[in-house]
């Protein structure tokens, strides 16, 4: 069984890699409205409803990164949507691409610890899921 190292997966916003990330995730959702009737024979029935997607990432702050905490904050301040790509550079791995908005950015500076950041995004429209070629 092939295994993939999570370090290979990066988050790109508008073609620029978000620097110094340590963790990233994406979640794909589907609403399942209930359609059970008396004729369902006692079994719950559902209908494939709205789909949505969201994700988050976190990292260590490095002011030399091209896309850093200030860039993330600017996305919210400017109410900007952006193209987000969550992928690896390895052929055959699954890639996720879509348009999204940041829903929050957190900047944390704990005493005697590395300065860190985290951010969450919400998809706006279709998410493309494809094999990296």
General description of the model:
By secondary structure, this protein is mostly beta strands. The longest helix has 9 residues, at 69-77. The chain has a seven-stranded antiparallel β-sheet. The protein has one helix and seven strands. The protein is elongated, with a radius of gyration of 18 Å. The chain has one domain (13-131): Roll (Pnp Oxidase, Chain A).
CATH topology-level name: Pnp Oxidase, Chain A
Q: Biggest sheet, in brief? A: 7 strands, antiparallel
* Average pLDDT level: 94
Tell me the number of structural domains.
Answer: 1
The total count of helices amounts to 1
Q: Span between N and C termini?
A: 20 Å
Please report which band the strand proportion falls in: under 5%, 5-15%, 15-25%, 25-35%, 35-45% or over 45%: over 45%
Low-confidence stretches: none
Helix and strand sequence: EEEEHEEE
Rg over alpha carbons: 18 Å
Class by SSE composition: mainly beta
Q: Write down the overall geometry.
A: elongated
Secondary structure elements and their pairing?
Layout: E1 10-13, E2 16-17, E3 21-30, E4 51-60, H1 69-77, E5 82-87, E6 94-108, E7 116-131
Antiparallel strand pairs: 1-2, 1-5, 3-4, 4-7, 5-6, 6-7
What does this entry show, briefly?
Helix content is 7%, strand content 47%. With 133 residues, it is mainly beta.
What features would you highlight for this structure?
133 residues, mainly beta, Pnp Oxidase, Chain A, 7% helix, elongated
